[in-house]
Each structure stands twice: as structure tokens, then as C-alpha cells.
């Protein structure tokens, strides 16, 4: 199950991965699931493994159905795949590989300006409406983002997802942009933590600004309608 | 319903309730003779995606000593608009809003399928959720860095209007004033001296609670109350500054010399956190989240001194009364826990270290307040990071799964008064064990209607900040144990009974000697078998248990070997951790903890459950074992050889590749769903980590009796532990003996 939207498919699927845990710090550290996998709602659930077998009432241990003697070499090959043999049920989880799925870069590289410019423009939009200190703070972090990007410090998945975030932001899809920021904080916190909170705030401020603008528009539409009732309104030359 | 199993399952799905007995013995004497008490496991906030809450308040019985809530068991006179309380038989008038109800137009709360229903309380102010981070800075550099990043990440997961605060500690305790100014200010406290709540509040300049100044008017959309304090600010306002503040946190600057532990003032840090919340936001949902990387080593609540050569107490030390700091430290944390619970707040403990951190002494903080306890090796592990992320996971409605400030009321038929408990922190899997006492006299007639009823009312603060009430009303038939024992027997829920008895056992183990608890458990099991087994006296081979009891002895066998009752293989902290989770999980997960699940994967068919027995360990099988705290995948010897030979890469042996993959996929699904995240062990025949599997399985073949059963299959276990077979044989002998 993948959130496949045309055009976003590769980027979306690349974010459903499982990485091994930190073997140095915890030899039995469980694998790490990406944000995408963690937030997958439902999906085909395999039968939960919760059944038990009762011990036989007469007390002797159950004789297993297949007997093999211990200490086995040499042993023949496993049963081959044939019409007759029953393959065990296949995992239905979308990604079970241990390595992050690296998609070959077939399209052009995400350009720095494609990401930074819309962000800086969004910030400019907010300047009249948001406190100066907040704008300065956001601006500082965007500068840091620019510096890190230009210095090659950001990985491909981060750059790709930022492009996606900016696209959503520009289309006023606040929740989607917010979700992408969250996925980056969860999956790539080391890379993004210094500046991502500025992007997060920018999304929030743009959202506020936009809803205020909508409210103003509704008010002014009502006023324009009122004015149009009065005769003799002239356009400015 | 064809069988009781279906009845039990349907009731659990609908009401989140599992009773040990689903037909109730009608007298007190008979109830005690049943051995297993009449009790239930209740999951008050069980996730019910199919149950939308109703947007009105519940109708209450007018009798002041009753106040039961209108439910499907009530008799209703639709013409006269009256209802009879099924608990006290009081006749009540329906409120005016209910004038239009009729047989064909019933309110939801009268319909049988709404035996569990949730109400949303519209009136009253809604307060934001509060998160107070209490952070140990005596960590290794990379550990501290990982923790800082996790905390920064959490700011993206918190709701924008939640309040957040930060206290850091090491040798000193620092309370950070959160502001949007560039200069960050903090109040520093000595870590050696405890302070009273008033002293803390005075020193921090908190003269009165910072509660909202306005009450929301009913019917109006909620305005954001002007709530905050200098130390607890809304996320949307403070996230950038707090991100920077967290990023700039340094390791505790006090140098730690060779052979010493860092001076860690956990006791005072927690005390200040509790006092801060007490003085600013009493009686609203808040979490104190303690992150610690080692034991408290100074001040009140210290658990060990700073000399490394003096180790932290073990179970042996405790048994020999050689744990210097334990009593005093426990008392300190109990005092804090009680105050926190009174204030309606909860305390989480996130302890990540290779050595113990004092969970034994601090456990009451999590246990009494309904907070979490997470134990890991380091903050720089996936186990901690993902477990922490899961705290902020959202349900099908996009709400957090955490609930606050709950009170649970249990109401029973006929008995005056209600029992009430406070649970400050709750989530959809939190499960309580409630034990009942039948009070009817022996030979008193079975109550009118032949059914007993119980109502559970949970009032709580939902994570969306709404106040809600969840009401569950259930009924079960009474029966006379003398004439209807078969009915009672058929309605026995052995799974629920096992967990409920286990909880009793673990509770006893906290204050009694280990061997005494085992003896008690054994005695109850023997009595149960004597009462409900079918046998001829003095003839053990004739002994049989009906289906509804068939798994019970096995559960008891595994419970006796479990880390909940066998403490000497674990540290006191580990035991506290295991017991903490056992005391709160739902039935399915609790059973997994008592008797781990074992599934076998092979070419012979789909994965199947197998006996937790060494005879299940076979060369051509892959085993998946789930103990709740660990997921173990074990490859049999032949599987290992096939894998070494590379058959999985050959297209004609694709089914082998699938076989290798299937348990990994199943394990992944468990790992994704479970809180806390379990450890993950992928091992094979001969691997050193195979010991995790071998120690759990019943040793039906040991070096003592390898050839006793006349077969040579399965892997021998090197232990002198008694096996299930020996245990059951002995049990049968004792059950059929007239001497017992």
C-alpha cells in the first residue's frame, strides 16, 4: 500500500523503508521504520500471531510431523518451486528490504533555487503580518538551509522531499506541507533539525496569512457588492 | 452465539471487558470455592473506530446515592417518558430533550449494541495538553546528541497549542524560562537539597495558578484561553527558540574523575518538576517526561553513591537487606508520585543506559500516575527513538492516543455506593484488573431477573482537550453453583483467569518472598483442578480437564518461570520494567508475556502455532517467538545450510526465499504495532543469541532425560528446570489425591 499520486510515486515509495537498528549501541536494536511506514493507516493486516497449542493431556511431548535427525550433513536441496508445492504466504508489507531503496536519479537534480526561492518569497509575503523577530528567525534558518544545501551537506532524499514540500506550500496545501516537514524531522532529524523548525513556522504563518486574506476577501466582496448598488461608481482613469 | 468463545470475543470487542467467570456464582461461599476470583480485565478507552461519540451529556439516575447512567438494561416506559434504573430500581423522568423518543426512535444509549458508548462534554473550559521535559545532561556526547534530536523532533509532533517546558539536570537542576527573547534565562537549584512545593513556587515566582481567565461560553466555539507561564509556553510560539535551546544543551560541566559516577540529582529535578506543575496547572492533563542515562547519585532519591566500585543494588543485595538507599529513595519518589497523581498529572520515565538507573525506586512515579516506562541501552538506538515517536502516534481520527485525568467508577447492582479510582495517564490499551466480591449469603435466592449488572464510567480529558465520558454497562447470569456447576464451568474464560491470577501473583511478589508466591499459585492451581477436573480418586491417569480449562495449567506453568515471578535472572530495574508493562497491558499482550507465542514456518503449510517446547525446535523450520519484550527469529540447522548454499538466490527455489522472508514480514508487523518497541533478535541454530529461545521453551528434553521419552528429535536444553510434563504429572497426582 503506497500513497501513490501521479508524479510523486517514486518519491513517496522511497520513503517507505526499513533500516537496521544501531548495532553498535544495542546488539538487539530493532529495525527503524521510516515515517511513511509508521503512519500507514491500516493496510492489509496479516492474521495476528496470537494462537496457542494446548499441551497434550496425556503428557507425552508432541511428535513433530517431520522427523529429521540432528547433525545433518550432507542434506539435499530444499523443495523446488513447482506446481504441486505450496509456497508459504508472501509478506504483504510494501517494503521489507533492509537497505533504503535507492531510486536511480533519472530526472534532473533538485535545484537549490527551486526550493529556496519559493520559501524566501513566502517569507516576504508574511513580513507585513508576522512579527519582525519571527521573520528574522525564519530568515536566519532559511539562510542556514541555503548554506547547507550549497555545501552539499544534504542528502538526496532530503532535497527531494524539500522540493515536494515547497510544491505543496505553493499550492496552499498546508496539511500536506506540514506532513512532509514532519516526515523529514522523523527520518532525517540530524540533517534538518537546525533549520526545519523555521520551515515549519513558515508554513504555519502562511496558513494564517492565507486564512486572514480569505476572510478579508469575503468582507471586501460584500463591500464591493454594496458599492455596486450605488449608482455612479466610476473606475479610476 | 454458538460457543462461549465467540461470546467472550464479541464482548471484548464491543466492551473491552473480559471476565474470569461469565456466569456468576450466586453466593459468597460458592465464589470462594471457585478458587479463581470473580474479576474482570477492563480496557476503559479501547479503540472503537466504529463508535462515534455522542455530542450530549449522559442521563443520570436521580437517586443521589446511585447516579447510574441510563443504559440498555433499563426498563423504559415510552408513553410516560419514564425509565427505571436497573441498579437501584428508581423511576426517573426523562429530561425534556427526550420527549420525542419512542420504541422506534430510541436514543443510542438504550440500544443493546451501545452497551459501550462515549459522551462528549460540551461545557467547561478546555485546557491545552502540557509536556514538561526533564532532561539528564550527564550523558555520553553521542547519547546526548541523539536525545536532543529526539526532543527537537518531538516539537514537530506536538500539537501547536500544547504547552511545553524544559528542566535540565546533572549536579545542579536548571529550570529554563522560555521566551522569544534572544537571551535565555534559567533558575538554578542545588541538586542536594529537596524543597517543598511552596519553596519551589516561591523561588520560581509562581504566586498563583496560571489558569485561564475566561470560561468558554457554551455553544460558542472554543476560544484559546490565555494560558501559559514563563516556564510552559505553547509550541507554536516557542518552537524555534526551544529548538535552539535544545541544540545548545551541553553535557553536565562538572568533571567526573576516574572511578566515579557523575553526580545526578534526579530526585530534586523531579521534585521541582512536580512543584512547578502543581503551582501553575493543577488538575489538567500534563506529562512530566523524565529522560535519564544513569542512576541518581546525589540528593534525595539517590539510589547509589558516586563510587563506581560500589555497584548498584542487585536482588541478592535486597534479599540480604544490603541496599542502603533503597527505602529512603523509594519513599521520596512515592511522595512525588502521590502528589503528581493528586494533581492529575503523570510521570513518564525514559531510562537509557547499559547499567541500572534506579527504576526499582522510581517505578511508583510511572505506576501510580499511569505514565510510561521505557528502558533502553542508549538514546542513540532505534528502540528508544521509535518508542518515543510512538508516544505521539495518532489514531484513525488524527488524535493522540493519550488521555489524561481519568476517573473510573464501578457501579454494581444492589450494593450501595460506588468505587472510584483515579488514573492520570491512560491510552487505548491501558487495562485494569478489577476484582469483585460476591456478597450474597449462601442459599439466598438468585436475584430477581437472574442477571447481575455492572457499569463502568470513565471520565477523562481526551487528547483533543475535550472532556469525555465512556460508559460500559454489562450483565451476566447468576447461577447456583451447587446445581449448575456445568454452566459456570462452560463459561470460564481461562485466558482472562490466567492474567487476573497472574496480576494477583505479581502483586503478592512485591511484598512476599518469591517461594511463598509460587506456593500460593500452585495451591490455587491444585484446588482449581480438584474442583473442576474429571477424575477417579487416586488415579492420576484418569484426570481430564474440559476444553475451557485445558490451557490454564500451561499458563500457570509458564507464569512460574516468567520474569515476573523469577527475579534472580534479572536486575531489580529489569524486573520493575517487566512488571510495569505486565500490570497495564490488555489480555492478548499480557498472555504473550506469560506464555510467549511460538510460530513455526516450513514448507509443509502456512505458519502454525507450536508448543513452546524444545520439541518444536527442528532443523527444517524457522521459528518466530514473541515474548512481548523480544521478537526472536530462529533458523533451524537445515535452513541455515540452505541459506549458506545460496538457494534463495536461485529462481527455481524462489519458495525458499519466500520462506525466509515470511517470518521477517510477520515480525515487522508486530514491531510496527507494539509499544514499547521490543528488542529484535535474528539468530540461528548454534548462534549465541539462540539462548533467548532456548531459555523460554519448556525443557521437555534436558540432559537428564534426553532418552527418557524414547525419541531423539528436537534440541536438548541444558537445564535442571522442571518440564511441563513433570509439572502436569505432579499436578494430576496432587489433584486426585484425597490427602490434599
Automatic annotation (TrEMBL), chain A:
Region spans: Disordered: 19-95, 208-237
Entry's localization field: Cytoplasm; Nucleus
Alphabetical keyword list: Activator, Apoptosis, Cytoplasm, Nucleus, Phosphoprotein, Receptor, Ribonucleoprotein, Transcription, Transcription regulation
Protein's GO biological process: apoptotic process; negative regulation of myoblast differentiation; regulation of transcription by RNA polymerase II
Major subcellular location class: cytoplasm
One annotated Gene Ontology cellular component of this protein: plasma membrane
Skewed-composition ranges (Pro residues): 71-91
UniProt keyword Membrane present: no
Matching InterPro entries: SRA1/Sec31 (IPR009917), Steroid_recept_RNA_1 (IPR040243)
Gene Ontology MF: a single term: transcription coactivator activity
SRA1/Sec31 domain sequence ranges: 74-220
Function recorded in the entry: Functional RNA which acts as a transcriptional coactivator that selectively enhances steroid receptor-mediated transactivation ligand-independently through a mechanism involving the modulating N-terminal domain (AF-1) of steroid receptors. Also mediates transcriptional coactivation of steroid receptors ligand-dependently through the steroid-binding domain (AF-2). Enhances cellular proliferation and differentiation and promotes apoptosis in vivo. May play a role in tumorigenesis.
UniProt record similarity statement: Belongs to the SRA1 family.
Subunit structure and binding partners: SRA1 RNA exists in a ribonucleoprotein complex containing NCOA1. The RNA also forms a complex with PUS1 and RARG in the nucleus. Interacts with AR.
Protein name: Steroid receptor RNA activator 1
Organism expressing this protein natively: Ailuropoda melanoleuca (Giant panda)
Taxon lineage: Eukaryota, Metazoa, Chordata, Craniata, Vertebrata
From TrEMBL, chain B:
Alphabetized InterPro entries for the sequence: ADF-H/Gelsolin-like_dom_sf, Beta-sandwich_Sec23_24, Gelsolin-like_dom, Gelsolin-like_dom_sf, Sec23, Sec23/24_helical_dom, Sec23/24_helical_dom_sf, Sec23/24_trunk_dom
Topological relation to the membrane, as annotated: Peripheral membrane protein
Subcellular compartments: Cytoplasmic vesicle, COPII-coated vesicle membrane; Endoplasmic reticulum membrane; Cytoplasm, Cytosol
Every Zinc finger Sec23/Sec24-type domain range: 58-98
Domain of life (superkingdom): Eukaryota
Span of domain Sec23/Sec24 helical: 493-591
All copies of domain Sec23/Sec24 trunk, residue ranges: 127-392
Any Pfam family hit: Sec23_helical
MF-aspect GO terms: GTPase activator activity; zinc ion binding
Primary location class: membrane
BP GO annotations: COPII-coated vesicle cargo loading; intracellular protein transport
Keyword ATP-binding carried by entry: no
Gelsolin-like domain boundaries: 607-693
Keywords, sorted A to Z: Cytoplasm, Cytoplasmic vesicle, Endoplasmic reticulum, ER-Golgi transport, Membrane, Metal-binding, Protein transport, Transport, Zinc
A cellular component annotation (GO) from this entry: cytosol
Residue ranges of domain Sec23/Sec24 beta-sandwich in the record: 395-479
The protein's role, per its UniProt record: Component of the coat protein complex II (COPII) which promotes the formation of transport vesicles from the endoplasmic reticulum (ER). The coat has two main functions, the physical deformation of the endoplasmic reticulum membrane into vesicles and the selection of cargo molecules for their transport to the Golgi complex.
Family: Belongs to the SEC23/SEC24 family. SEC23 subfamily.
Protein name per the record: Protein transport protein SEC23
Name of encoding gene: SEC23B
